[in-house]
């Protein structure tokens, strides 16, 4: 087994492990966001009840509650943006994994001696190349979406 093949295999395993760790971290963060959403919703419900039920409450107290409610809405919006970014990153990781698998299949056909390739091999190689191009285009679209979101936030 040549050194370059071992190096490629090792790097592929490292990349796969990095994707796996990143996916786990994203999953944990999505769960944290979900818990925070529930907490914010409970706080918002309490504040809304206070604002609706207390007619005799001084105006400065109502203003304070309204400011707290607006803060909760802002926090929820920022969490929704983060959640959206994470979901895009999850899709990106899936496409990256898919691209890696297609690369491996394509490498198999490309390493095969040209004289030994059957018409079926040529068709499979072309199909894999088309799929690979499609995956790359999907990743490009995701990157474009993320960039648009960042620009709109600014």
UniProtKB/TrEMBL annotation:
It comes from the Eukaryota. Residues 13-154 form the BMERB domain. This is MICA1 monooxygenase. Its main location: membrane. Keywords: Coiled coil, Membrane, Monooxygenase, Oxidoreductase. GO terms for molecular function: monooxygenase activity. Pfam families: bMERB_dom. It is found in: Membrane. Residues 23-50 form a coiled coil. InterPro entries: bMERB_dom, F-actin_Monoox_Mical.
